[in-house]
Design brief:
This protein is mostly helical and 223 residues long. It is built from ten helices and two strands. The chain has a two-stranded antiparallel sheet with strand order 1-2. A hairpin with a 5-residue loop joins strand 1 and strand 2. The protein is flat.
């Protein structure tokens, strides 16, 4: 069985893995065989590619809608409120209502993102919540990309997530090189190898400090 198997609701009301469901399809097995691809690999790639397509469509639609809102009179009003709430309120703008409106829109987008994450992960329970992954990491993405810019948030998201995924295997590789000359029973070697997983924490903190020091407005600052 492949890693990261996703679940779907079958016609009988029971949960079955998507890859296993595809692997039981004779049509899919014939197509995979004609391409010379292992059915397990083919089913995994098929599910991943379909999810990537859905993700791309949702992302493009959201960016287009947000850009239209940003460049509209409503978006200019929000920027005016952000820059000077007192002046905006003196001009007759309902600042409290606009804050509430933005909070609701942001929560709706977060809900959509959560629904897509569950579609990918299969399930989400309170015990699996990791503040580093679901809170701090998103915060770093926005800071690195640059706040006040939709495209910068996307760039920061892709860059930080790629770095977050790659750091741990690179950390194990680096610690393997550092400890290669140490004795097998060395306590220091065991400690360093076990600490390789924490390279993510060190790397994210280092990236955040470097960005705040040399580019506090992010990689793509707001115009």
């Amino acid at each position: 069985m492949t890693c990261g198997v996703k679940n779907v609701q079958s016609g009988l009301g029971r949960i079955v893995p998507r890859e296993i469901d595809l692997q039981s399809s004779e049509t899919f097995l014939e197509r995979a065989g004609s391409l010379g691809v292992d059915p397990v690999v083919a089913s995994t790639l098929f599910v991943k590619l379909n999810y990537s397509l859905i993700f791309s469509i949702v992302l493009v639609v959201l960016v287009v809608m947000l850009q239209l809102a940003l460049n509209s009179p409503w978006g200019r009003m929000l920027r005016a409120i952000r820059d000077n709430e007192v002046a905006a309120e003196a001009m007759g703008k309902d600042v409290t209502a606009r804050h509430l409106q933005v909070f609701i829109i942001g929560s709706a987008i977060c809900g959509l993102a959560g629904a897509m994450m569950i579609t990918l992960e299969g399930q989400f329970i309170p015990g699996t919540y990791q503040p580093l992954r679901f809170t701090f990491l998103v915060w770093v993405m926005v800071i690195v990309g640059g706040s006040g810019n939709n495209f910068s948030a996307i760039l920061g998201g892709f860059l930080i997530w790629f770095l977050y995924v790659q750091v741990e295997p690179l950390g194990h590789w680096l610690m393997g090189i550092i400890t290669s000359g140490m004795a097998e029973g060395s306590a220091l070697k065991a400690h360093l190898l076990e600490s390789a997983a924490h390279m993510r924490l060190l790397t994210m903190g280092l990236v955040l400090l470097l960005v705040l020091r040399f580019s506090p407005r992010g990689l793509i600052p707001e115009k």
